[in-house]
Amino acid sequence: MRVAYWPGCVSRGFTPELHGSMALVAPLLDIELVQLDRACCTGAGVIAEHNQELADTLNARTFALAQNVDGAELMMNICSTCQGAQSECQERLDASAEYRAHVNETLAAEGLSYEKGLDNKNFLWLLVEEIGLDELRARVKRPLTDLKVGPFYGCYIVRPVDRLGIDAVERPRDTYLAQVIETLGGTVIEYAGSHKCCGFPIITMNKEASLKQAGRHLGDAVDADADCLVTPCPLCHLNLDLQQPLAERTVGRELNMPVLHLPQLVGLALGLEPKELGMQRHVVKPSSVIDWTTSVVAGVGT
Amino acid sequence: MAEAHKPPQDFTLRLRRYDPESGDAPFWEEHTIQLGPHRSVLEGILQAKARFDGSIGIRCSCRAAICGSCGVRINGQPGLACHTHLDKALAASRDGVIEVEPMGNMPVIKDLIVDMDAVHWKKIQRVTPWLINKEPIPEREYIVPRESMIDVTQSMACIQCGACVSDCLSMEVDPLFVGPAALAKAYRFVGDPRDAQQFERLKDLAEDPHGIFDCTHCFKCIEACPKGVAPMSQIMRLRRRATGDHHIVDRNNGERHEAAFVGLVKDHGLLWEAELLPRSYGGNNFFGKFAPPSALELIDSLPVITKALLRRKVTPMGALKPHKLPKDDLKQVKRIYDTVEGRDERIELNLYISGYDEDVEEAPA
């Protein structure tokens, strides 16, 4: 399938391994990525906090660019925060024809216009809803046997449920990570922090509280005996992986919990090598922490 | 309406019991009750109390979702026991048993009753929850334009049940955080045209290390609120007023972080993380990273920075050079900024007030 692909900023900045692994995984799943090179930052909620109309207009521009991609079935992102920030803007744009017309008026100078009803999905949603778990299972080359994985969703992709189209029966999107881990052959670890906040949004405002959140959830995962966490959000990855040494200092315990990006976990199971997936770039090296001899078939060196 | 009169059926409740005076640890207790599927979880608890164990502690009054007394966690989600149907609760349960426990972030007095005074009401008092009159006080009522009050109606819908406080993830790690309910209440007065001290209120809450910039934007309170108050959205309005209208530069980097973020996206189209952090501490300009606060932050973060560089997660060039949009697109982004920020008034669409097109179309004439 062909998708208009929005990689986000952080996946090309501080977590380049995310964008890189997505590019490797996509062909293995027959996803053709048409990158939205002209689109700008979603604002991550901060631009909306500054000026709602500004965030709505910038994202409407991105949506319009996505709608102009020939043959694209939908728009896809690889960042929970992008998903949440864009969904918030889209909710307002779709709710009112009058407001949409007002925003489109600003875009008209570039010949762009957003039409109501864009389908914008995070890679996680696309995996389950478009590709399907059966199809994914059929493509697994190296099942993640005995790998104990804790899901970490990121707030923006699980709340608020109405805006994100989550329904406990019809579309339980807040359980998809667990379903994907199972499909890839891994063991799902349940722990208290899976749907909580990584703390990243307040890292510059209240560093201690921010790192306490990261440290607490990582600690819960350690106590639940997880080998690693997996997240569809690069901002969560920053607080959980990059900042982990500081989180350890803040909560006063050793954590040593590797955190994988979702495309990395999928890529491993589809037969890609950890190094190709950029796993040696993490602050907490998954290659040195996980006992790969029992966890995953085939040796995984650094 | 036929659904409302379905015959009674069995529901099993798993209640969290705790009596601090007994000296025993908290424990779970199950009771099976018989009620129609559209009766409330509260009615279920009261039936268990009447039939099986009179010592079950639950606080309730109106049973109609307006007094805010029966806030509890049902299957891990905070809400009103009287406002949750038994069949819905059953559908959301993990194992066919409806789990009811006391709200979080507050001490338990007994069973499902938490100490609202110790946490919730203390925080409400913290924000001066009354109108501070503009002088001179008119002899009769204040006359304000009708439109000027619409904005605060959402925060006025709060019934003080504490559901948002229960699951606030910032409060979980920082008990001093003023919190969602109290900050929504603060906006009720900051947004009120009759209030005389909007600047002082905002300055106070922006400078407080546990104030408006301590909210981690997790949407928990929006999800928890049974009345659609969306406390987090009110906190964002407080921030917007503090930074945008009153230009309050706070000690918590709130204003600087926002200014740096918005400015970097305007200049580059994409976020430049390596520049965002120092500017959030040192000030929103090229020299921000050389200011003493960002140097201190740099030293504090050295273990992380070194590791990131060693692992080639971040290359020095990658950190020093921003990724940018193509020239023409950057021009478009800048033009959007200039157009929108050049307006005389900020335009905000609040769906709580405006509603959705479909709802208006589908509403009976």
How does this model look, in words?
The complex is a heterodimer of chains A (302) and B (365). Chain A has 302 residues and is α/β, with parallel strands linked by helices. Chain A has 14 helices and 8 strands. Chain A has helices spanning 16-28, 46-50, 52-67, 80-95, 97-107, 123-131, 133-139, 176-183, 207-223, 234-242, 244-251, 262-269, 286-289, 292-295; strands spanning 2-6, 32-35, 74-77, 120-122, 148-151, 187-188, 228-231, 259-261. In chain A, strands 2-1-3-4 form a 4-stranded parallel β-sheet, with helices on both faces. A 4-stranded parallel β-sheet of chain A has the order 6-5-7-8, sandwiched between helices. The longest helix of chain A has 17 residues, at 207-223. Mean pLDDT of chain A is 94; it is low at 297-302. Chain B is of the alpha+beta class and 365 residues long. Chain B has 3 domains: 9-114, Beta-grasp domain (Ubiquitin-like (UB roll)), CATH 3.10.20; 117-220, Fumarate Reductase Iron-sulfur Protein, Chain B, domain 2, CATH 1.10.1060; 254-324, no CATH class. Chain B contains 19 helices and 7 strands. Chain B has helices at 41-51, 86-92, 117-126, 147-150, 153-156, 163-166, 169-173, 180-190, 198-207, 220-224, 231-245, 254-268, 273-282, 292-300, 302-310, 316-320, 327-341, 351-354, 357-362, and strands at residues 9-17, 27-35, 71-74, 77-80, 98-101, 108-110, 113-114. In chain B, strand 3 (71-74) and strand 4 form a beta hairpin. The longest helix of chain B has 15 residues, at 231-245. The radius of gyration of chain B is 25 Å and the shape is globular. The chains are: A alpha/beta (302), B alpha+beta (365).
What are the key terms here?
heterodimer; A: 302 residues; alpha/beta; 4-stranded parallel beta sheet; 8 strands; globular; disordered C terminus; B: 365 residues; alpha+beta; Ubiquitin-like (UB roll); Fumarate Reductase Iron-sulfur Protein, Chain B, domain 2; 3 domains; 5-stranded mixed beta sheet; two-stranded antiparallel ribbon; 19 helices
